[in-house]
Amino acid sequence: MRLTPACVVISKWGQKLDNLWAWIDGFADGGGEHAALFVELRKIIGWLPALIEASWITLALTVTSVVTALVFSVFLALGKIARVQSQRTKSIGQLVTRGITTAIRWISSGYVFFFRGTPLLMQLFFIYFTLPLINPVFNIKSRFAAAWIAFSLNIAAYLAEIIRAAIQSIPKGQLEAARAVGLSYMQSMRLIVLPQAYKRMIPPVCNEFIMVLKDSSLVSIIALTDLTYKTTMLASNKASSLVYLPAMAIYLVMTAFFTVIFNRAEKKLGGYE
Amino acid sequence: MKDHAKRAIALLLAIVMGTLLFACGESDETNATTIQAQDAIVIDSPAKFEGKKISVQSATTASDSMEILQANGLTCQLFPYKKVTQCFDDLLLGRVDAVYVDSVVAGHYTKDSSKFVRTWISDEAEPMGICLQKSSDKLAAAIEAAIDTLNYNGKMEEIAKKNFGTDETAGLRNVTEQPVIPTDFTTVKKGVLAVGVEIGYPPMEYTTDDGKTFIGFDIDLANELGDLLGLEVEFVNTSWEGIFAGLEKGQYDCIISSVSITPERLEKYIITEPYIANALCIVTAA
After folding, report:
1. Domain residue limits, chain A
2. Which of A222, A226, A241, A258 to mutate to test the interface with B (most CBs of B within 10 A)?
3. Strand order across the beta sheet in which B192-197 lies
4. Nearest to A64 among B20, B25, B27 (CB)
5. Domain A51-272, CATH 1.10.3720.10 — does that match?
6. pTM to 2 decimals?
7. pLDDT, tens digit, 9 for 90 and up, residues A187-239
8. Containing domain of residue B178, as a range?
């Protein structure tokens, strides 16, 4: 294979783009039958750089917060299903273990109850505006960090339920058999149950991911310019609602990309079942 | 777990960490410099926005002005909020260095306040008018005459003093004889003057502490106009970004919501002669 230097490729593409521009210009200024259409097309292409720049915020926020939430939510899910088998003999140690387990379960359930039960918009507002007013220690200077924290906390609650459902869909016998051959609880979860649960998690996690991609437009209330905010700003500034067209196309491209990735992952992990 | 899966997860985590460092780090960097510079530089002109964090309300004349400044080579971090009140919240919490805002609002925040101070006001006056659709020229004429009447009988000065403490409307209109208000206008709803407002812009249009009653200079003005025109006033609370689109759709007869008179707006809508003086200004923390 012959290697072409990057700069040559870029200049070639640049030339092609210039040709395309000239072509569109020719139609737009030519005054032909569809000239108005090409004038609009030229406008849309002019907005693209600003929209793509704004969609980086959307993308970065979605990916970082979903990944953070995934890690956190595994512990939440395990916390929610933690139980101690009832035993006749009750030594002090057993009572303490039972107490701790119950506390973990209650805390996890309470967390999910709170973060699923209040609007994400308000959680975002609370973290960015209310907490710093209560105590300056919580003053998060970076808008992105505030959004990331709020989104991660919120998504974790939803993902925890997805993961719990996936774990509990694995037949009980699997865990019992693993314990019977002498694996500890954590070992049997890590080696037997979770690998099987992965595949079942992927479709709902993909679902959640796409929801977050679109919900991320809420960050406009803390002045973070994501794709939706940029679009409405352009629409009101330039007084043209046409800008929603390329913005929707960008959202579709992003969702399509991640749908393909999740589909691939589902096929790959399918080998376990 | 297979090795390549572990590698993929490690890579993903690394990407996330990288993004976070990149995305969250931006403001922390500038933070260090602003703390050093705070004592030295007072932001007393838009030229000093360079490298600072500035908040504005989006889709306002302040944000348009910012856009022009940025197009001319100014680099600063822009915080475009949907509500002007949030701009001041952020200034109070020290997350932005200055707010770029209409002087009528700045007056409300800096008056009797030890927290905010106005450091600059533009020479270019940007007075406010009432905005209507091009097609409602007859209603515009009636409103124009009604505002003149309010100036003539001193009501305007009265409501200005009530809301600002000073007469911000002085000198804008010199009405020497009682105007005649035409009656041949039509409204969207018969007998009702529907007014588009963006509540949350003190002291022009906001609510009492219980959040139920609309108050402010524009609200008082609209009620006086309704009395003079013999119409019942109905307020339609809209977000600022969608307020002009709502007028075009015919959701209300006019916008009485601190609309600065600009050439772009005059091209598309009718705006009455100025009823209150205003200019862009800069507010910083004291």
Report:
1. 51-272
2. A222
3. B232-237, B192-197, B254-260, B128-132, B270-271
4. B20
5. yes
6. 0.80
7. 898 898 888 888 888 899 999 999 999 999 999 888 888 999 989 888 877 66
8. 128-278
